[in-house]
Design a protein that fits this description.
Radius of gyration: 22 Å
Shape: elongated
Structural class: mainly beta
Order of helices and strands: EEEEEEEEEEE
Helix content: under 10%
Distance between the termini: 53 Å
Number of strands: 11
Low-confidence stretches: none
Mean pLDDT: 82
Length: 133
């Protein structure tokens, strides 16, 4: 199995080549794989922070595989007020900062409850957030 797992040590042998082309071997080195750097094993959409917020907030999500992503913000009427992501993204963790002081049309957003929705071909999740002025 060629998968790298988190929280495990892996050993590699390094070779150095000098100016004459002679290889010098060094002993194995320890490499610890930080789980925070690895792609998540499942889709996730985290609660924004801070919440309530003014004017900016951070929305975090995880993708276990490369996929098309759409992340949008909706008002209480279900109208899209912002499209934050609409693109193909590689697997990984994402932290997106959103400044809610302007909506899609450039006007100021009113104080209130908003929803943000993460959509991929395999996953859909909606969370609530509160914008205050």
């Amino acid at each position: 199995d060629d998968r790298i797992e988190s929280n495990k040590y892996y050993y590699y042998r390094l070779e150095d080549v000098d100016i004459n082309g002679q290889a010098k071997q060094h002993g194995p080195i320890n490499i610890f794989i930080d789980p925070a750097l690895m792609a998540p094993t499942e889709y996730s959409l985290d609660q924004n922070y801070p919440n309530p917020f003014n004017p900016g907030t951070t929305i975090s999500y995880g993708l276990p595989e490369d996929t098309r992503v759409r992340l949008q913000v909706f008002n209480m009427k279900g109208q899209v007020v912002a499209t934050l992501v609409d693109a193909f993204q590689p697997a990984g963790r994402y932290d997106l900062r959103w400044d809610a002081s302007t909506a899609l049309n450039g006007s100021s957003l009113p104080t209130g409850i908003y929803f943000y929705k993460l959509e991929t071909s395999q996953y859909t999740q909606i969370k609530k957030m509160i914008y205050t002025k």
